[in-house]
Amino acid sequence: MTTSAKLGVPALLISLLIYGSESIFYYQLQDVPDIQVLCHPHIWGFLLFLPYFASNQTADWPTFQATVLTRRNLCFYCGSALVLGGSMLTFLAGVMHGRIVEISLGYFLSPIMGVVLAVVVFKEAPRRWQYVSVAVAISGIVVIAKECHDFPFLGFGHGALYAVYAMIKKFEVLPFREGLLLELAFLFVPCLVVVVVLECQGTSVFLHTADAATNWLLVASGVVTVVPLLLYAYAAPLLSFTLFSFLEYIDPSLTFLIGVFVYDEEFTSSKLAGFVCIWVSLVIFTLDEVTSARREAKNTLDDDDDAQVAPKTDTATEDATSDGDSIETLRHREVQPANETPKAAVFNAVVDNVDGVVL
């Protein structure tokens, strides 16, 4: 294992352990109204992140304004902030109302939902084992819904929002720090307005009816929000896809175990059968993803080797390369015009349309 990977593993583990145990933290805020529990993490998280961002920011204000505060970026990160806020809302609703196990179901389902999103939104052709994985996951959802006599809307909604957010972040157009700053800023403003209104109405519990421990927990929610995000972003580029894929399941597994064994939520044998189906689908999905990633990496290496030994036989190619373009550049242009994948083209078209309508 490389030195960078050795640093990435503990960073990712700490991040996932915090995420996985968040339900315990927020469970201590049962006496605080849900809307206030939702607002305080984003308020304190933004205030905590600002000095960190300022200490790492080297660009002056005009440069920052020209490169970060563009209309396109503001549209993009406003959308991602809305999805992130919705994901947080469904998570807190599950914790506050004794449905932590259902929330863990959403976390487990989010990779499978990502496949469905890729098919529906980007018209991607699923691989054979992805079909199998989705089918097994659906069977698990049916078993759980039958046992509960209701569809697990909260968990399903949380998983869907989590999958949409992950999809959006794949097209992130700014470095992580700048992107997170915009997301937190978009969430900070409405959350601050809500807290100020509640303060004026005399219904805010912070520094009023709440005890000292609750006040400190509300402030600490900013740390719980920002720190794992920073550690996760630091670790992601340092680790291999295989290792990262397997470690990521620590978060939903911890959430599931906390719901069942710490808070003693109802978990029948029928629910267990449904979860087993979903776990099996995740094993199939992860193994297929790892195999596909290795195959693509091997094909890329083979293409690079072929390019190094390929003779110049085409006159047009020779003319183009004489103007300073390499064969690899020309091949890339032929296969991938304008440096843009079909998936990115669809996504960028959506952002451009929103940009034109909104602004």
Automatic annotation (TrEMBL):
Residues 7-144 form the EamA domain. Residues 297-327 are annotated as: Disordered. InterPro entries: EamA_dom (IPR000620), EmrE-like (IPR037185). Residues 316-326 have a biased composition (Acidic residues). The chain crosses the membrane at residues 7-29, 35-54, 74-97, 103-122, 129-145, 151-168, 180-198, 213-234, 241-263, 269-287. One of its GO terms (cellular component) is membrane. Gene3D superfamilies: 1.10.3730.20. Keywords: Membrane, Transmembrane, Transmembrane helix. This is Aste57867_11580 protein. It comes from Aphanomyces stellatus. The gene is Aste57867_11580.
